[in-house]
Amino acid sequence: MTHNTPLSPRPLHHISDGSRRVLTAAELRAHGVAPAQLATQCRPGGPWQQLLPGVYVLHPGPPTGEERLRAVLAYATRETAVPAVPSQPDAEGAGGAPRPSGPACPDAVITGLAALTLHGFTTTPTLPALDRIDVLVPRLRRLRTTGFARILRTAALPTPQHVTGLPVAPVPRALADAVAGLPDAGAVRRLLTEAVRGGHCDPASVVRALTDAKLLGRPHVVDAVDSLLAEGRTIAEHRLYRMVREFGLPDPVWNVDLRLPGGPHLGGLDAYWPEHAVGVEIDTRAPRQDEDALWPEHARKREHLERLGITVVRLTPRKLREALEQQATVVRTALMASADRDPAAYVLVLPR
């Protein structure tokens, strides 16, 4: 004789003991949890609780930081994610818990302060301390900010970096989204400074992200960017000094201006080898809405020096941070090649 054995109470005990503690209403239904059972489990003082609309955590007490992140992602993707249905034995992991499933490409990406915390920033709040968790979704998604989930719409999701298995916006984009919600100049400056000083990204990528987000019209952001560019240049100069010392390059003259005798100023260089007519320029330029006109000027300066027989090696802070030995090889090659060139024009080398 065949009996229709009800799915409860076994599924409740089964999923409560599983490794996935955050599930959507659709996933719970797939486990056989009826709406009435769900309401009972989530009653005041009950064993489960609702974190966000349609998203539940299967234990009492405060959720962990990771559970809050997973709840925000579940809320943001609940219309697009495919529930993990434990219908096939081989679809289950250890202990019979269903393996997570969903879209191959994320439909939501953690950004803002939460993303920066995941990237290892120390000047951001801990995950449990965040009042809001920002999440990027496609512009056409019909979602609203609710609870601790703040929905940020974007025309195109950034390619995420996966941190602890979660899709997280790259540092420059996460910074821009965080700065957009910070009115305090000090907090903005601390974030941008840590981004550069901590080696998370270079100033140019930060400024590009802030420009794309149209944040450079805010005075406190502009002030912080000016400090950021100064910070980035100082760090890059120290790396240039270290490159010369560690890789045995000849000592240059540092921070000089070049001028034709009795003629115009030719421009400044961060390092210059007069006997080789080779100079190094650290390029910390970044696209700024009010600086587009400077790009042709920098190009003309370099072309003028090269017409005079002076080789200019352009190094960016990112290259000095990520490939110091390779940049030393580039400079050494330029120094060695100077022996095969015609003599350069005579120029005055003045301290800058």
From TrEMBL:
Superkingdom of this protein's organism: Bacteria
Annotated region Disordered: where?
84-103
Protein name listed in UniProt:
DUF559 domain-containing protein
Tell me what organism the protein belongs to. Answer: Streptomyces glaucescens
